[in-house]
Amino acid sequence: MHSVIAVQLNANCTIGINLSGQNLFVSIRVIRGLHLCSSASICGSNNFFVFIRAIRGTVHIIRGLCLPNLFYIPGPKQFSMQKILVAALLLTTAAANAQTKPDTIKVDLNKQFSSVKWRNIGPFRGGRSNCGTGVPGDINTYYMGTTGGGLWKTDDLGLNWTNISDGYFKTGSVGAIAVPESDANVVYVGMGEHAVRGVMTHHGDGVYKSTDAGKTWKHMGLEATQHIARIVVHPKDPNTLLVAAQGALYSKSKERGIYKSTDGGVTWKNVLFVNENTGCNELSMDMNNPRIIYASMWEHGRKPWQVISGGAGSGLYKSVDGGDTWQKLTTGLPTEMGKMSIAVSRSNPDKVYALIESDSEKEAGGLFVSNNAGASWSRITNDHRLIQRAWYYIELFVDPNNDQTIYVLSAPALRSRDGGKTWENLSGTHGDYHDLWINPKNSNNMIISNDGGSAVSVNFGKTWSPQNQMPTAQFYRINVDNQFPYRIYGGQQDNTSVSIQHRSFGGGSITASDWEASAGGESAFLAFDPNDPRFVLGGSYQGTIEVLDTKAKGSTNIMPAPIQYLGRDAKDIKYRYNWNAPIIWSKHEPNTYYHGAQVLLKTTDMGRTWKEVSPDLTRNEKEKQGKGGVPYTNEAVGAENYGTLAYVMESPHEKGVMYTGSDDGYVYVTKDGGATWTNITPAGLQECLINAIEVSPHDKATVYIATTRYKFNDHTPGLYKSTDYGKTWTKINNGIANNAFTRVVREDEVRKDLLYAGTELGVYLSFDGGKNWQPFQLNLPVTPITDLRVHKGDLIAATSGRSFWVLDEIHVLRQYNKEQTGLQLYKPEDAYIANGYSAMNAANPTGTARGAGVNPANGVVLYYNLPELKATDTVTMTITDASGTVIRSFSSVAESAAYYDGAPPANPTLSKQKGLNRFVWDMRFATMPGIPNVYIESSYAGHKASPGTYTVTLKAGAQQQTTNAVILMNPLYPTTAADYSAYDAFMRAAESEVTVMHNLVNKLNGKRLQLDELIKNLTDAKYAALKKEADSLSKDMKAWDEDMVQRKSKAYDDVENFPNKFTANYLFMINQTESDIPRVNQPSIDLKKEYDVQWLVLKQRADALEARLSVLNKKLSEAGVGAIWK
């Protein structure tokens, strides 16, 4: 192999060679008088390079070339010589050979690892839904749009929901849905959440359309609108529609207002644009005269520290020509307007209602009504319940069949039956409501959307469908403990925090019994001793924090300054807390926790006392600490607090080394436990949110940060790496999409430089320390990734809209070598003996299940990479124990066993597809054979292998590889090594006996059937003796068979009518000995001894029958009348 090396010569004839820091003794000679080039425009006037190649230790100059971006040593512009000998060039042979394979292999990681699957573990508890709609004429079918979780559909009144956007939508947040009344197959979806929070709100990418009721989708443009609040469609023409585009939340933009299409979304026209800060948040069409449309235009926006709701651009508008032109409505309305909603009555189109945010100090807002189609207005009420927290709510709907029944959605859902004079709370499934669809043909039927999902009612809102069957939760952070099974902790937006097992041993799924509420609230960081998580510290907004005693099921509030901060400006509060204020447990200091405000707080006594251990570690810009909401309604829940710590990280290597990151872009480090702090913010880093910090598990000086500027409408990624405690930084974003802003970066615990990044659009992966990234989505849906954690061989992802996901088998990534193209068998992760089952044992699992989380595969998960194989090649896998005994084997050739009711399951088949393949050995011994067309009410599965090391051998064509598979004891089981040994010996012996029995039964029965057919041909008198002997033998064989097998049993319940015979009883004993927690009890031992004595007699009878058959067979052959061949 030849190695190309870049070399530079300086004036003193010294040669410098850069070859990845490796060394090799070589000599160099110049081939004749070589003129070396130089180019000031490329290399600079004083630098030039040559290419040389290593051949058997001698390096030859082969071509002169200027190379930029390599190391430079000043040298002359020209240089020629006859011969140079350099004796002390230190380069390794290995490095030279490595250079023969330049790092130019491009691998699509999603394709390469397509057999590796994420699994959704839940919890199944709905997250925020901004919109929902039904289908007129179909009371069973509804659509739900979620925040970050995509689009969902139910066809059973909301009892079960299925995602229908995965694989089609490029973003996850849905703001509007419309199904035309004239064509239920057409569905329009507007992307981007319209209830624009400062946290957990996600922008969209325009409009999608389906013409087959959601089976497939096509993108229809309007990408730059970012947030779409409503879509209305002409009642008789499904191709005519209008879109309410709120527009960019964090900046001015021209892509907002009202858009109209008359060709089903192929082309669009902006028919109402007010200014670059004003978008449309509501449209209401007169369905009796669709040329009449009402609209609410909303001047709004956000800064990281403030929500702006209202201004000169806000106003109500009306069109009488289908939206082509618009007239502003003013008579009787406030002059100062914030967010508004407008709704025209379908049953009385002259009556129009409007809900208006205005100056709260002047009490100018409220519910207004027009009885002359918007010509003039009067206020009905200024009830604060209707207009509170206006930027988040202000949703108004009129019963399509009764103009006096109106609904207002706010923190509660409110209904008036007298035109808005009096109000009642609507029963519901959650708080904080955002959308309502009422069936125009049946007012009892509706779907409501809130912070917990969407729910369907068919009885005027008395009862609703559940919201605990959709995995659309929005989580902020991940923490994990070291229990078995380990638990994942996180705060769910709009709900409680959660502690959930990463797997369940109670069955095949992770259900509500496997998770529980934990400490703190919706925005909680959760902290605890991972080895003893009895006490969990959890926070919530405005700095509230508690310690939960998980054993006592009670908590204690431990707020460092127990002051009510709601309603106060950030500059006036003692501690400024982030909405998602960090709390961490110290690995190095016993019983010590840290809590981030604008300063770092420390407690060593579970919150009895707190101590400040830092100065203000933020920019502390007072002008950004004023009112959280302007100009008409304040917002002071805590999400707009600014100049706060957003992340705290303790070095896992060194006591006293800690990093902090703020929401305004500062990074600090202390190396002395907080006595002194150094600002290590990357040079030139703009104001941003430091959302995550990661100290490398491999190098104490290496640290990563994940930054984001989405609150400045900058969606570019922002990952940085330092190898010197933050003194210098390198940006590491190459390969991450320009619109995939970053929230988290983690390094693998085992493989150095293997990095995982969580972005707004999914997961990315790097094998080279962040120099290059690729998407690593696999089967993970497009959803914002808010946190990642590597733990016990798993990669855990927290999402904003699809709950928690786990990638179990990252050992494949740790062992992956992209240059390996031949046969490769990966060493599997150690597997635990465990009860339960999992859909992940399937050959190509989806990673999702209806109504419950998915367990990891129960078994040894084996990955193997195959080259291109011939059609005639076979792939085989054998499992052998420590003694070399084969206990299970598999093949790429499918078994050809005939199916019958109660038959043993076929052995799973190995894939022989080129590339990476996945196979799960369920840890069981070989399946015992059945008896064709006989139903035995027992399992034929072999028992599970005992803890130990097993050898896996993979053969593909002429190639072979082996690896070890380790099975571990389940720490929850009381089973000892001696118990396992006794159990394994018993089960091996018993299963072996059943295998012999059934094979013998099948063999003798086959011969008996042949014999009976032959007897039919022995009609000649000269065969009388033979016939008599054959009849006698057949009768005895049948009697033996009847003692062994109950052939009348053909179906499941036949055992109740036709009692078991010997082999079924023996198999039942085996099944009753096998248990989730293995143990051989004395009754099994005693019964096996009894059965073995009976079997000895039966086996001797069978041997005698076979001997008689052999004699008869010889006679039949000699008589020339045939023979028994099988």
TrEMBL record:
Keyword Ribosomal protein appears in the UniProt entry: no
Keywords: Coiled coil, Receptor, Repeat
Domain Sortilin N-terminal: 151-271
Keyword Coiled coil found: yes
InterPro entries xref list: Sortilin_N, WD40/YVTN_repeat-like_dom_sf, Xyloglucanase_GH74
Residues forming coiled coils: 997-1043
Top-level taxon in the UniProt lineage: Bacteria
GO biological process, one term: xyloglucan metabolic process
Protein name as catalogued: Sortilin (Neurotensin receptor 3)
